[in-house]
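Chapter review: from sequence to fold.
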Amino acid sequence: MYRTVGPPAESMLSVRFFPFREQTPIVIRQITSRQKFTIMDSMVTQLPLFEEFAEPVIPATLGLVQVGIRERASVLNRAGGDYLGCDYTLNPYVGCGFGCSYCYAAFYVPDLEKRAAWGTWVDLKVDAERQIAQADLKGKKIFMSSATDPYQPIEAKVCLTRRLVELMSDPSRQPILRVQTRSPIAARDIDLFRRFEDIRVNMSITTDCDEIRKRFEPGCASIERRIEAIAAIADAGIPVGLSISPMLPMRDPEAFGKRLAGLGAKVSFTAMFHQAKQDFQANTRPLALELAAEYGWDERRYRLAAIALKRHLPHLHIGDR
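The token string follows.
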């Protein structure tokens, strides 16, 4: 059950191991010839002599998405104003492989070429683990994430978000955690979510029609897979929420509301496409507005759909733009 692995006589090398079952191997860099580590099944316990954090084996591409790294990018940022009542936002990645047509986060990219290519690239914050390990987060409220999806496709390969959640799950440093995602990959981390005293996992499910979803969110998982994932998380006893934001065109909001009501969400909210109130603020990308116009989706139809949803989701918060 246990095996101790010691490196050969070379003075410096890289060692690969699997942090948990069926995941991409991780690299610990610069391990000297006398250092050893213990493996139980496929779980790794690092001995105190290790000071280096595990770094993922990073693919150059994932499908059509270019993958890069950010060596000193901040993973935690103080929440501006009263951002969902949180103390910090936590973003493990810069960019997002989902590339939703409406995503306002592209606005925060200063490089105009990369902003225009939003959805075709993602960068990993490779110093994220060290930053979380050194941060005093006990009792702080963390929103993960505000400008990326922590469970976007690259996460299945590199497990960066999982390692951050595991670090934060330590009772001695445990924050209040709010997870925001549209990805079924989040269900993989149910074992870690269960460790938190105060957590909620919010799933974005923005329409009831996959044909519409494919036009606005072609890189995202189907509605069915998202519902299955959040249902599994809820069935594990973990509080869940629903984000129907931005609400995309709906076929039958009444029936959709009945289905969502069965998920047992504690919180749900919806909003129309975000429209900045001032110049130089984050805004909905033009493609989404063009698609909305094609479907005849406007403020009036949004309001009618939201009212129909609220009949079955009495806790639904109906927001503005």
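Two observations follow directly from the output. The first helix runs from residue 112 to 116. The mean pLDDT is 83.
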